[in-house]
What does this fold into?
Amino acid sequence: MDGLTCDGCGETLLLDSEVRYVLRVEGFAAYDPLEITRQDLERDLEEEMRRLLDVLAKKGAEEAQDEVHRTFQFDLCPRCWRDFLQDPLSAIRRPAGGG
Ligand SMILES: [Zn+2]
It folds into this structure.
């Protein structure tokens, strides 16, 4: 992330290659559109809010943030950029059903 070396392979950027690539990754929690039912309106929202705040208070700020929104930025050399484009999800892919 310093713009001087490739975060993939450690190669010196702009000395060893004429172009560098900046990869920005943003991940955030997505919720389905809210559908409000009578049951929702009858819930004790104050109690629920207290429970939620209690859960959040027990988590660290970073853990709570990780669950909602994170961004990353990486510098890549042309070779690592091509490798990334080949399979952007390679780092997180697991066999189906493997958990
Ligand atoms: Zn590289």
